[in-house]
Specification:
Elements (H helix, E strand, L loop, with lengths): L1 E6 L7 H16 L3 E6 L5 H13 L8 H16 L3 H28 L4 H8 L1 H15 L5 E4 L6 E2 L10 H17 L3 E5 L2 E4 L4 E3 L5 H11 L4 E6 L20 E3 H9 L11 H4 L5 E5 L8 E4 L11 E14 L9 H11 L4 E6 L5 E7 H14 L1 H5 L5 E14 L9 H11 L4 E6 L5 E7 L3 H11 L7
Parallel strand pairs: 1-2, 1-8, 2-5, 3-5, 4-6, 8-10, 9-11
Antiparallel strand pairs: 6-7, 10-11, 12-14, 12-15, 13-14, 15-17, 16-17
Helix pairs in contact: 1-3, 1-6, 2-4, 3-4, 3-6, 4-6, 7-8, 11-12, 14-15
The chain binds adenosine-5'-diphosphate, aspartic acid and magnesium ion.
Length: 469
């Protein structure tokens, strides 16, 4: 049996947590399983690196965070295998090498003062390269051979820096070539999550939270039996526990439900996590490192349809509602096509589309970081219609959030929309826009950001999704 086991930032956030992870990897090996470990950066490190890059771009050439990062990793290494001088020296050399590289890149940034996605990837992807050797050494110190491997050797991606797409055939060849001999020799490879490289060898990242995606990419490439994603909650829950204290862990969900949940803001899974395993039907488990005996959530093709239809509620923040509106739009063909063409040209991700039946208005929800580019591109593409006054304006509102109710069995279950809107109405929560995906696995709606948490709680309650007390 081959499993790919991914450990998130909190799970490798301290020496004590890394020791727990190493124990889990060693236990899998003792059960005779061939295990590939994928590690995130220690919690908070990626954000620290991004902040350093941004400050360097402002002209501050000092990598001020370096001593703190060096000490945090070194302290973990000392606590885990300080008595093994050989391991400690080997790990220290890699830590030094990684931090030195960030130092040089930040110095370069302070001179050119332009932070391109390509340089940001080179810097932000270093966190995983600092964590992997520590975890591999912790496993070795427990008597099981282990080797830290940079995913730049395994995962081949396109050159969309900051949001790279893996190239399956190339990745499969490299991953099998490098990892299969290690697995056969009983070695546990510890692979850096989050990063890959172009065919030409330039480091890319898979987007924030991308280590989940790394795990399923590697799982598919190795034709693994299962992919296990270890995190800091008991599994995929009926809502973000930060919004809904009585949210419940779901035992089983389908690939399509997991994809919708991840796409609509459930941070527990990177939004592309399911893509690589869906075709090969490799099961994914979400497990809790602080409760390793828990059942977690099992994600499979079939899932486990719920009688109520709705299984979970999500919210996405940091999004903007961009509207193209004007009475003159009615009956003019091609405005929607041009609008969507303009958005696609910016490679902006559209999270939701809604068109009022009066045709006076087309709304799309995009990430707030894309808002300015999308508005500019729409204004340019629709310049003629604005001049002719078919369109009044293109406007944007970033004080909103998207709420989604998700479940496979929503299709064909009547009354779900009525229940969602009835519950929000009873609480005086204003719904700004609505959309139902054509898959009918999802109803999403836009509310004011200040109402988002309450809206999630109210819908969660209306469908009685919480723990039964
Ligand atoms: P990791 O560092 O292990 O990748 P993340 O912080 O990326 O962990 O994801 C886990 C977090 O996702 C949880 O701690 C929780 O706050 C958040 N979360 C949001 N929505 C959900 C949900 N529906 N189920 C479980 N966790 C959720
Ligand atoms: N370390 C990366 C991040 O913080 C990737 C991950 O943790 O999944 O975004
Ligand atoms: Mg994550």
């Amino acid at each position: 049996m081959i499993t790919v086991q991914k450990f998130g930032g909190t799970s490798v956030g301290s020496a004590q947590r890394i020791a727990g992870v190493a124990d889990l990897a060693v236990a899998a090996s003792a059960r005779g399983e061939k295990t590939v470990v994928v590690t995130s950066a220690m919690g908070g490190v990626t954000s620290t690196l991004v902040a350093a890059a941004e400050r360097a771009t402002q002209g501050n050439w000092n990598f001020d965070e370096r001593p703190m990062l060096a000490e945090r990793h070194d302290a973990a290494a000392r606590a885990l295998f300080g008595d093994d001088a050989r391991l400690l020296a080997m790990v220290r050399e890699q830590l030094d090498h990684g931090l030195e590289r960030v130092d040089s890149l930040c110095f370069g940034l302070s001179l050119v003062r332009e932070l391109t996605p390509r340089i940001l990837d080179a810097i932000s992807g270093t966190g995983e390269m600092l964590a992997a050797p520590i975890l591999a050494a912790a496993i070795s110190s427990r008597g099981v051979a282990s080797e830290a491997i940079h995913a730049t050797e395994l995962i081949v991606t396109d050159d969309q820096f900051g949001d790279a797409e893996p190239l399956a055939a190339e990745t499969r060849a490299k991953t099998q070539g490098r990892l299969v001999p290690l697995l056969q020799a009983g070695v546990i490879p510890v692979v850096t999550g989050f990063i890959g490289a172009t065919a030409g060898g330039v480091t890319t990242t898979l987007g924030r939270g991308g280590s989940d995606f790394s795990a399923t990419i590697l799982g598919a490439a190795l034709e693994a039996d299962e992919v296990w994603i270890w995190t800091d909650v008991d599994g995929v829950m009926t809502a973000n526990p930060a919004d809904v204290p009585d949210a419940r862990t779901m035992r089983a969900i389908s690939y399509s439900e997991a994809s919708e949940l991840a796409y609509y803001g459930a941070k527990v899974l990177h939004h592309k996590t399911i893509n690589p395993v869906q075709f090969a039907r490799i099961p994914v488990r979400i497990l809790n490192t602080t409760n390793p005996d828990g059942q977690g959530t099992r994600i499979t093709f079939e899932g486990h349809p719920s009688p109520t239809g709705v299984k979970a509620i999500t919210s996405i923040r940091n999004v903007s509602l961009v509207s193209v509106s004007g009475r003159g739009m009615q009956g003019i063909p091609g405005i929607a096509a041009r609008a969507f063409g303009a958005i696609a040209a910016e490679r902006a991700n559209v999270l939701m589309i809604s068109q009022a039946s009066s045709e006076n208005n087309i709304c799309v929800v995009v990430r707030s970081e894309d808002e300015a580019r999308v508005v500019r591109s729409l204004r340019a593409a629709l310049e003629f219609d604005i001049m002719k006054e078919h369109i009044d304006d293109v406007t944007a509102d970033d004080s909103i959030a998207v709420i989604a109710a998700i479940g496979d069995r929503m299709a064909g279950t009547p009354g779900i929309a009525a229940k969602v809107f009835g519950a929000l109405g009873a609480e005086n929560i204003n719904v700004i826009a609505i959309s139902q995906g054509s898959s009918e696995r999802n109803i999403s709606l836009v509310v004011s950001e200040s109402d988002a948490s309450r809206a999630v709680r109210v819908i969660h309650e209306a469908f009685a999704l919480g723990r039964k007390n």
